[in-house]
Amino acid sequence: MKRAMTTLCPLAVVIGLFLLSLLTLVGRGADLIFAVIIPYLALALFFAGIIYRIVRWSQSPVPFNIPTVTGQERSLPWIKDDKIESPADNMAVAWRMLLEILLFRSLFRNKQLQQVDENRLVYGGSRWLWLGGLAFHWSLLIILVRHLRFFTEPVFQPSLWISSIDGILQLALPALFITDFIILIAVSYLLVRRLASARIRYITFAADYLALFLILAVAISGILMRSIFKIDLVAVKELAISMIAFRPAVPAGIGLPFYVHLLLVCTLIAYFPFSKMMHAAGIFLSPTRNLKNDSRMIRHINPWNKPVRVHTYAEYEDEFRQPMIKSGIPVERNNAAQEQ
Amino acid sequence: MADKRIEPEEMARVDYHPPLRDWMDPSVEFTRGSYCYAAPLKNQEALNLPNPRQWNPQDLDWKLPSNFKRIILNGMKERLNKYRSWKLYLDICVRCGACSDKCHYFIGSGDPKNMPVMRAELLRSVYRRYFTVGGRLWGKLAGARDLDERVIKEWYYYFYQCSECRRCSVYCPYGIDTCEITMMGRELLNLVGCTTEWVVGPASNSFRTGNHVGIPPHAMKQSLESAQDDIKSITGIDIEIPINKKGAEILFITPSADFFASPAWFTLMGYLMLFHEIGLDYTFSTYASEGGNFGLFHSAELAKSLNAKIYAEAERLKVKWVLGGECGHMWRVIHQYMDTFNGPPSFLEEPASPVTGTKFENARSTKMVHICEFTADLIHSGKLKLEPRRNDKWKVTYHDSCNPARAMGLFQEPRYIINNTCNQFYEMPENTIREHTFCCGSGAGLGPDENIEVRLRGGYPRANAVKYVQDKHGVNLLACICAIDKASFPPLLEYWAPGVETAGVHELLGNALVMKGEKQRAIDLRGDPLMVNTSKEGGQRGV
Questions:
Q1: By CA distance, what is A74's nearest residue in B?
Q2: Nearest-CA neighbor of B276 among B224, B318, B327?
Q3: A116: contact with B, CB 8 A cutoff
Q4: Which of A47, A50, A86, B394 sits a CA distance of 20 to 30 A from B410?
Q5: Residue B343 distance to chain A (closest CA, Å)
Q6: Taking 70 as the threshold, does the pLDDT of residue B80 lie above it?
């Protein structure tokens, strides 16, 4: 029962959002709420939330230099060090972070446990999660850039270039985007692996399903809107531009499919700063990845470093002076011997 | 281990299917072999630990202080403000599962709460409940749960089934470091007086006597003298062992296990022979007679307190720099913490080898050099005469100890020494070495005898890779550079890969080192007959 709740509750949220957007059929008042008020609120939450979270993280110091080193250190000149996996300067850290953020270096490194038989443990490179994750995130980025054409007049050129490359496989009209397919397949894979593997299902919580369902619903509603339930794109752009200019005006007849899509997107971005999706910002601050392996070269400062109780040499010698003298170990204060 | 012995074949049949029970249910069973004893009252008091009391994990009532919830939550709040790592790692996990099969305790036990992600969730669930809006509002649905005594027990069970090896952190797309999670978890447990004897006992010894085993200065001297005798009988050479010598150039610090425990003892002999041969002006210290630091397995504060002795002693003895022996977590502290804790050591000089003149620029601030860096430089500069054939009875593989690997990146130096001191060296499968290396299963204070089942299970992945090279190449020696390895591998390999012995890299060096004026060696450092293959005659003889 509990297990079912983990998937059903997030599903109910998404269905609820769909039903909620049906309210736009009621009339212009609802239009205003769904086209203007909710998006503004969602955007405000999105930006304020992200800034709040990053500021909160940044307020905590990094007391120790704790990179996870995954390559040969820089030590003796004749030993070749691994510049990226054991970064010793800022440039190397920048490369390490770039590889992590753009290419998911650590996921690529995955060595999955594959038990061959009872007496032999084998670990094999497993790249499916890496591939699925990379395909999903890159598609999402390209789709976001494509969407910029709705918010810019004259249209932001790279957005058009990307759209035309992305739409190169024009099997049907309007242009069918490659990334639409990829994101559907990738997110479905990420969802199915959570449901199919007992181990991954065990570590999947409602929040994980919610994020996946929301993204999937956003993608599906977007695709359907382009290909089947056509909407008035000119009106959508009018709305977007008016919103950007902070003079919101809702053109009539945008159509329900758009409101479904928009409400799902708004929910996603409003939820973003309070969810695990904040990993997108958190990765930049991760001390095991963004620090240099130079802690013996340059002293790392801990702002809250404070003196602790130490058993001093004098206290130590006071306890052991006699046996030390007897066994011929040098001592600081030999008055005990003089007394004898 | 339960009352009867579990056979390796049985232990290797690990069931990886998670139980149907809800993970939020915190009940754990403290069965024999699967937990560490609590620290006795006298050791808790010796270190002024909070809420000291006599208790036992198998007790129903742990006698937690009545306000334990407040204490824990305040402790969490304090640490959230002190450690960005911890705060971030409680927030950003997406539970992708990349870490889920990376922990050696999970691989060996199949217990789903030994998946790094779940180990962290034990804390995250409480964090969400009391520190996040979602957790307060949605409770269980948001992955939040109440803090109660059962949760404390669960923490004790699982935070002492993590050896802080940081293997999972290698594969995490955000670098989430379970070591940070476990360290904070243990600090929180400390606040309510839940600590283990195997951590607090050695730490309180180290605080008072300077080393974990509690050897007083005169006994340490005797121990070093008997190493002197052994070396004399093997090589015919009288060596000097300076102790607490003021004005020496170098202070040498090594884990105290080297002073008495086999096979670490043979590593000590290797150091002593090397230092004699190159005429090193160095000294041991009885006050700072411990390189290891069990404080690290307890709290940052205790780690700092124990670590402070190294610089204090270096200053008192007026040495120029510090050289450190083979040890795992000792080097995590020295490499990543010492300078921050107790530096800057302005009274020391930038380390340079007195023999080769090489400057160890990578240690220019901390001013402490790893013995493998030091020795590799000597060999590379041609300063040592080595006879690798003297190690011919060994087919060697090398275990990257977790901390020198993933904290330092010390991969090539020990291999360079092994390759120059042995003729037969075989690597374990590449997915199990270097940054992918597996812990011995006994690190971070998990090494007591009563914890044997956890240790054997946790050591299974490493031992299994050893078994592979044993079967394939006839490997009979596991070389390593960690004192806990040297203590834990002999029983571990006896269980999983009988016939493979354990040695420090500098034991191999001591065997191979041709010393000026030595007699023909008939025995190796272990006192066994020295056998070398002589390819021409096909026979064996002493050299």
A1: B362
A2: B224
A3: no
A4: B394
A5: 8
A6: yes
Nearest-angstrom CA–CA distance, A235 and A241: 10
Q: Which amino acid is at B377?
A: D
CB spacing of A57 vs B97 below 8 angstroms? no
Every domain of chain B and the residues it spans: 8-30+50-194, 202-380, 388-541
What is the least distance, in Å, from the CA of A83 to any CA of chain B? 11
* Pick from B492, B501, B446: nearest CA to B11: B492
Place of tokens 């002589």: B534
For A268, counting Cβ atoms within 10 Å of its Cβ (0-12 exposed, 13-18 middle, 19+ buried), the class is buried
Contact of A321 with chain B, judged by CB distance below 8 Å, is answered with no
Q: Is B1 helix (H, G, I), strand (E, B) or coil?
A: coil
Check residue B385 and give left, alpha or beta (phi > 0: left; psi -120 to 50: alpha).
Answer: beta
| Residue A195 neighbours by CB under 8 Å, 6+ apart | A7, A201
Q: Which pLDDT score is estimated for B61?
A: 96
Distance CA B511, CA B527 (A): 11
Residue B370 per-residue DSSP state? E
CA–CA min distance B469, chain A (Å):
12
Contacts with B100 from chain A: Cβ below 8 Å: 199-200, 203
CA-based angle B445:B337:B362, to the nearest 5?
A: 120
CB B322 within 8 A of CB B253: yes
Q: In what order do the strands lie in the sheet with B396-398?
A: B396-398, B477-480, B501-504
CB contact under 8 A, B18 and A202: yes
Is B411 in Cβ contact with A100 (below 8 Å)? no
In whole angstroms, give the CA distance from residue A304 to residue B340.
11
Spell out which residues of chain B touch residue A119, defining contact as CB-CB under 8 Å.
Answer: 9, 12, 464, 467
The pLDDT of residue A117 is above 80? no
A70 touches chain B (CB under 8 A): yes
**CB-nearest partner of A327 from B218, B334, B431:** B218
- What's the pLDDT tens digit per position in A268-324? 999 999 999 999 999 999 999 999 999 999 999 999 999 999 999 999 999 999 999
**Do the beta carbons of residue B250 and residue B317 sit within 8 Å?**
no
Residue owning tokens 């449901």? A195
Cβ–Cβ gap A203/B405 under 8 Å: no
Which class is B8-30+50-194 in CATH?
A: mainly alpha
Q: Share the mean pLDDT of chain A.
A: 93
With an 8 Å Cβ cutoff, are B304 and A70 in contact? no
Length reported for chain A: 340
- Partners of B386 in beta bridges: B513
Does A330 reach chain B within 8 Å, measured CB to CB? yes
CB < 8 Å from B in window 158-177 of A: none
**What would the pLDDT profile of B361-404 be if each residue is shown by its tens digit?**
999 999 999 999 999 999 999 999 999 999 999 999 999 999 99
Amino acid at A110: N
Q: In this complex, which of B23, B339, B341 lies closest to A296 when CB atoms are compared?
A: B339
We find that the CATH architecture of domain A2-306 is: Up-down Bundle (1.20)
Give the closest of A63, A73, A304 to B408, CB-based.
A73
Joined together, the tokens standing for residue B359 give 């400057």
| ipTM here | 0.94
- Domain spans, chain A: 2-306, 310-340
Identify the CA nearest to A292 among candidates A53, A54, A81, A59. A81
Which residue of chain B comes nearest to A274, CA vs CA? B134
- For residue B266, the model assigns a pLDDT of 98
Fold of domain B388-541: Rossmann fold (3.40.50)
